[in-house]
Specification:
Blueprint: E1 8-11, E2 17-21, H1 23-31, E3 35-39, E4 44-47, E5 58-63, E6 68-75, E7 78-86, H2 89-110, H3 130-149, E8 152-160, H4 164-173, H5 181-194, E9 210-213, E10 228-231, H6 233-239, H7 244-247, H8 252-263, H9 267-284, E11 289-294, H10 295-304, H11 311-316, E12 325-326, E13 332-336, E14 345-347, E15 353-356, E16 362-363, E17 366-367, E18 371-376, E19 383-390, E20 396-401, E21 404-410, E22 414-418, E23 423-426
Parallel strand pairs: 1-4, 5-8, 7-12, 7-13, 8-11
Antiparallel strand pairs: 1-2, 3-4, 5-6, 6-7, 9-10, 13-23, 14-15, 16-17, 18-19, 18-22, 19-20, 20-21
Length: 427
């Protein structure tokens, strides 16, 4: 499948969102002087005239993930724009843990005998941990951005990663879990994520895997998810109806790992499950039409359409999906970087000040987070570089490009092409 770029967003002179156009058409309009570049990420042009016609409404589909969220904009059966949004939940969690440890050490040093204080704060029923709340807010930020640039009137969200009702119903009703096509997708998708798409017994991957009962069904094993794993065909046949302790008698380390993994919940799935309803409730307040679908249905649609496994194609297959005409399949890679820190000084691993942060955030008209294009014409680093910059008070900047970090680029060679907005971009 050849990579097709995203369509360009189009605004009229009053900033009214119009139907996106092909990049070639946007280029012709700009060259003819009928439009100008309004924004580089996502690429948006603005026309020189007002358009009275009502544009065709579009649908935004979202596949929320723990680390990466897929975004896709569809016009009927045509996929016009796709993106992958990388969250910074783990960074936030690590920063909070570091701050907590430093704060506790400082308190122990200065207030050794202070009376313990806990359970003296109340939280609302809708409270989420900062790393989880970040996921909700970041997705909503991008929904608001995209509705400003495209005539979006509906949002489809993957509400549940796994349809727990369909996972539990087969066991409750006494019907085999393979009985229904979609229910089978729910079970298999859950197990593929839980067992990392590998055979639980030999670790082989990239081959067809079978659903295996850890405690044999012939000896009283159930169809509960905690009793299921994935195994390759040779291991499944070799194990047969043996107890797992007997089968892995000579491999105690693997036995311990399998038993522990069977009881371990999915951490990433827990994060998604914690935020799904908060995101859904916030989406309903936007005034857009909101529809939902399950993860099993997403995989069923993607397999039926024979699309590769990617976050943005998963987003395109959320909910009721028509026979897609795939156009855009080169996603805009969006990475949440944040807006910096309010710390007045940096600390070492022991919590002692190591260096102070300059009060002024601008150097030579630039600030950390700006996306620049640098054309170096002399020296050892001759070439053209595009990426996010990190400032140095000396005027020698570092540029993070898709190919790596380029250090020591003078501000004289840099030209700002996108102002800092808390995100990094790439393709």
């Amino acid at each position: 499948m050849s990579k097709q770029p995203n369509y360009a967003f189009v605004l009229d002179t009053n900033r009214k969102p119009l139907t996106p156009c092909k990049p070639s058409i946007a280029r012709k309009l700009i060259n003819a002087g009928k439009a100008k570049v309004f924004r580089l990420y996502p690429f948006t042009i603005i026309l020189n005239k007002e358009v009275v016609d009502t544009p065709e409404p579009l649908t935004l589909k979202i596949d929320p993930g723990s680390k990466i969220t897929g975004l896709a904009i569809l016009s009927g059966s045509s996929l016009l724009w796709v993106a992958e949004l990388t969250h910074r939940g783990q960074t936030i969690k690590a920063a909070l843990e570091s701050r907590r440890s430093i704060r506790r050490n400082r308190r122990n040093r200065h207030t050794r005998y202070r009376q313990a204080r806990f359970l003296n704060r109340t939280r609302s029923s809708s409270w989420l941990a900062p790393s989880l709340q970040h996921r909700v807010e970041t997705i909503l930020t991008w929904i608001k951005k995209l509705t400003r640039y495209a005539p979006i009137n509906a949002v489809d969200q993957e509400l549940v990663r796994f349809d727990l009702q369909q996972l539990e119903n087969p066991e409750i009703s006494g019907i085999e879990y393979q009985q229904d096509e979609l229910a089978g997708y729910e079970v298999r998708e859950y197990l593929l994520n839980k067992w990392e798409r590998k055979c639980a017994y030999c670790g082989i991957e990239n081959i067809p895997l079978q659903i295996e009962h850890i405690h044999p069904k012939a000896k009283g094993g159930t169809n509960r998810i905690s009793n299921l794993c994935l195994a390759c065909e040779p291991c499944n046949i070799k194990k047969g109806t043996k107890n797992i302790e007997e089968f892995l008698q000579k491999k105690p380390e693997i036995l311990k790992k399998v038993l522990a993994q069977a009881k371990r919940p999915l951490k990433d799935t827990a994060a998604v499950n914690s935020t799904r309803w908060a995101l859904f409730n916030r989406l309903k307040k936007t005034g857009l039409e909101v529809a939902t679908g399950s993860g099993g249905l997403t995989k069923f649609n993607r397999t039926h359409l024979q699309l590769p496994k990617t976050h943005f194609f998963d987003a395109a297959c959320v909910g009721d999906t028509p026979e897609l005409l795939v156009l855009a399949n080169q996603p805009l890679l969006i990475k949440a970087t944040g807006h910096g820190s309010r710390q007045m000084c940096r600390t070492d691993k022991f919590g002692f000040p190591s260096r102070y942060v300059p009060q002024f955030k601008f150097v030579k008209g630039f600030q950390t987070g700006d996306i620049v294009k640098a054309i170096v014409t002399s020296g050892k680093k001759i070439g053209a570089y595009t990426g996010r910059i990190a400032l140095r008070s000396t005027g020698s900047f570092n540029i993070s490009t898709t190919s790596g970090l380029i250090q020591g680029i003078s501000y004289k060679y840099c030209q700002q092409i996108h102002q800092k907005d808390g995100y990094g971009y790439g393709f």
